Amino acid sequence: MKGRQHADFIYVEDIVRGLLLCAAEGAPGEVYNLASGVETSILDLSLLINRLAGNSVPIQFGPERGWDHSGEGLEVR
Question: Which of 9, 17, 58, 66 to pair with 32, CA 20 to 30 A apart?
């Protein structure tokens, strides 16, 4: 479905804070997934950007790519 792919967008400062925390307190060899825990569809993000920018141009969709994700996101603990 066009635009229903979603991602967990996260602010760069939050990623840096998470990386520093992993480096300082993480266990060697462990895997850490850094995420906001909020899934946002590409369509919803596009509509928000258009609204905030005052843009009335219709959104155009390209072909889906093999790595586009529309399933469940990461579990955030």
Answer: 66
